[in-house]
Each structure stands twice: as structure tokens, then as C-alpha cells.
Amino acid sequence: MRILEIVVIAVILTAAAGVLFVRKSRKLNIAMLLAVLLVLALHGALDHFRIQMVPAYAAALGLITVLVSRLLKPEHAVRSRPFRKLTKSLQLILVLALSGIAVFLSWLLPVFTMPGPTGSYAIGTIARELTDEARKETLSVETGDKRRLMVNIWYPVDQREAAGKNKEHYPSAVGEAISLVFGLPGQLFSHVTGVKAHVTAGAAVSAAEARYPVLLFSPGIRSTRFQSMTAVEELVSHGYIVVGIDHPYTSAKVTFEDGESVFYVPDPEFDTSAGLYAYNVTGIGIRAADASYVLDTLAQWDMHDPAGLLQGKLDLDRVGIFGHSYGGATTAEALAQDKRFKAGVSLEGGFWGEVAHTGLQQPFMYLMSGNTAESLKPSAKVKEKVAYDEFTPDLKSVMVKSTNDTYYLTIDHFIHQSFTDISLLSPFLFAKGMDPVHNVDITRSYVTAFFDQYLKGEPQRLLEGPSQRFPEVKFDQAYTQKRDF
């Protein structure tokens, strides 16, 4: 809980005790009323109200009503005494229950503090809208629409440049995506906008290096380009320019610069696994084309950026791509179709398209949750959606046919969404007994190590085998192969 939320609960309980157990006093009633009103005003102005605290607000409203009523009554009004102790006891129980529920909900869904990135750079960001005039938007109801994308570019900034400047907060898109993924009311996650990132808008790109390697990030289906900010921040702090892509109609919600929003469109129903498989091949093909188009645009910006921000700063000989779930599948297919991508990481994605038949020529890392790995076993009674019928033969085909280094890692105590920042949003629900910071540290550490080794040419011990720092991570020996050239 935030400090002012704790103060709100403390003032409510104190005022309730004053009302129930202290002899009636006009001055005391005024003081208690002002205290409740003041702390609520401060909380609303500085923290912002949130749904988890609604039971406490209800208790506060009840106290305000009682205190105003006491102030309006004549001081010597005669009150009936029957059942007075019982009434007080019930009132106390109600206040304690409402306050307790608010404390529990605020603990369950906290306004967390993001773990700091470990690199030397601060982080800047800018959002841009892109339109691919060469491609029609096949999912739009309007004929003639072109494929439009929203991207965020996160880039290295000098620490001095960022010092003292306001930091960006998590956007509401994160809460909207989480509510869509888990089928929960969006209001439960509206508080994520109170979480501060380590990102400064509008700062200049650091001049410490002439050019920076570039990474594209593709989010999961029904998700958002902001879903894995801990990994993005870590990579940027170590000297990467990261471009997060929202893919209209498969991302949760894409809001363009003119205010128009495009929402996720659910998959149609299919009678066979083969039908859904073919549908996903088409969908991932669109996303892979998105990635290639973004890379085309970055090449243009490197030659001439109208804003001057990225011009001459992009090292397009060192480009990687990574993504989660559907974004992981996008990663694998983009690597297969576009050799400008020099390395890639799939965070539990599928293999739909060309990649399933040809394998990869670039270094590739696949991270899988222990939960999904278990569901792939023939004896498993519960199957994760990621474990579709064709997954195992496709995985084998990719890993066996690939001609460059491959890594296949499984992570115990992870679920499919553990590769995002979800464990921070509710450690109790999503961290599965693991420290939430350690949870996100696994993903960001292995992704950073992989790209440091294959884009920067810096060998990483973390990729050599089991680590005492991350005992949950297991290397599959059959699919983890270092090829000699």
C-alpha cells in the first residue's frame, strides 16, 4: 500500500474509535470530520482514487455521514439507549471489515515500484504512428484502409540529461490488456497508471556511442507494446534502441495519434486444429510483415529523421527481434523471412509459417515456462493453449533444421504470462511463490545476455549452462546447440 492509503485507513479507524468510544464533543467531531475529509482530498489529489480502496471510501463516507449528523443535532438531544452496545459493536465490526477488505485488495493488486535497470544509460522514449502504403488492412471493415501501426522507440539517454526530469507512468493500455487476457474488469487494473517507469519523454539520444544496436519487440495477442517494460528498460540501459510494436486487431487496443482506437478481434471458431493452424499462419505472416516494415522505416529515419532524433544513431547491421507468445511466433517468422534480423528470442511463442519448415540461419533462443513444458507431456491432463497439436513437431523441425546457435530453456515456476511484468502487478496471484523482482529478472537477464553475445560480440557466461543465480532455468541439451563455423 502507498503511504497515503495507509494514512487513510489509520484515520478511518481512529475516527471510528472516536465516534464509538469517546464521549461526544462538538470540537472532537469537527476535528475528526476535517481529518477524514483532508486525508481523502490529499489521497485523491496525490495518489488518485482506485477501486481497491472503495471499501475504505465507503467506511469514510459512513463516518462523514455520522459526524455531520452529530454536528447538526442539538448538543443535549436525548438519545435512546436500548441496544447501544450492540449497535456500537456492529458499527465497529463493519468499519474494521471494510478497512480490512481495502487493505487486502490493495495488497493483492499493489501500486508497485519497478525494479531499476542495471545498465549505465537512462531511458528516453517517443511514440510514432506508421502507415504502410504498400499494404492493405485486410482486417478493417473499411475498404481501402492501409496497414497502420503504433510504435514506441525507447533509446539510451545520458544520466545527466534525464536527471530531474519527470518520469513516464505505465499507460492505461497495460491495465486494459491484462483485463482482456484474464477476463477481469478493467477497473481492477486502472491503478497501473500510478506506477512510475524509468523513462523520460523527449530527451536527446546519448552521444556516448556513435550508433546503437536495434531491437524490435512484438507483444502477445490481446496485449500491448508496454507489457514488458522491465525487459525494455534493461535492454535500453545497456545500450540498445528498442522499438515496441502494437499490431492492430491482435494487440488489445491500438490508439492512433488522431484518437481512433482499434480493438482486438477474437479468433473465429474452427472445427479442426488444422483450420486454426492455417489461420495463425496468415496472422503471423501479417505481423512478420509489420516487423519488416518497421525495419524499413528505421532505415529511412537513420538517413533522415524529420525530428532529427534517430538520424545516424541506428546500427542496422546489428538488429535483433524478440517477442512474447504471439509476438514470439512473430519473432521466429520474421527471422525466417527477413535476414536483416541477425538474432531473435521467442518467449514461449509458436511456430507458424515458413520457419516451421526451414529452420533459422540466425542465432535463436526459446524460453518456455515450466507450466507449459509440463502440459506438453503426453500424460498431462491440462493443456496450455500454447501447447497446440502441431507445436512439438514444429519445435523439433525448427531446432534441428536451424544452422546457427540455438538455445532451448525451460523455467520452473513460470506460467505463460510470467514473461511479462505480471508478477509485479500481483505477486500473490502471478508470482507463484517466487519473488516478483526475481521473476522479471530472469527474463530480462537472459534476453540481455543473448543479444549482448550475438549483436555486441560479448561472450556471456549466463548462456553457457545452469546458473546458481537462476536455479529455475534449465537448458535442454537436445535443442541447445552451439554450431561451429
Q: Could you please describe the fold and organization of this structure?
A:
- This protein has 485 residues and is an alpha/beta fold.
- The protein folds into 2 domains: 3-108, no CATH class; 122-475, Alpha/Beta hydrolase fold, catalytic domain (Rossmann fold, 3-Layer(aba) Sandwich).
- Helix content is 41%, strand content 16%.
- The protein has helices at residues 3-21, 26-47, 54-72, 84-108, 159-162, 172-182, 229-237, 273-303, 326-337, 355-358, 370-375, 391-401, 422-425, 427-430, 436-454; strands spanning 122-136, 146-157, 199-201, 212-218, 241-246, 253-255, 261-263, 314-324, 343-347, 364-369, 406-411, 473-475.
- The strands form 2 sheets. The chain has a 10-stranded mixed sheet with strand order 3-1-2-5-4-8-9-10-11-12, sandwiched between helices.
- α9 (326-337) links the parallel β8 and β9 (343-347).
- The chain starts with a helix and ends in a 10-residue tail after the last strand.
- 44% of the residues are buried.
- The mean pLDDT is 92.
Task: Quickly list its features.
Rossmann fold; alpha/beta; ten-stranded mixed beta sheet; 485 residues; two-stranded antiparallel sheet
How many separate structural domains? 2
**What's the story with the biggest beta sheet?**
10 strands, mixed
Q: How many individual helices?
A: 15
Radius of gyration in whole Å, from Cα? 27 Å
What's the CATH first level of the largest domain?
Alpha Beta
Strand residue percentage? 15-25%
The secondary-structure element order is HHHHEEHHEEHEEEHEHEHEHHEHHHE
CATH architecture descriptor text of the largest domain: 3-Layer(aba) Sandwich
Through-space gap between termini: 54 Å
Taken from the alpha-carbon principal axes, the silhouette is elongated
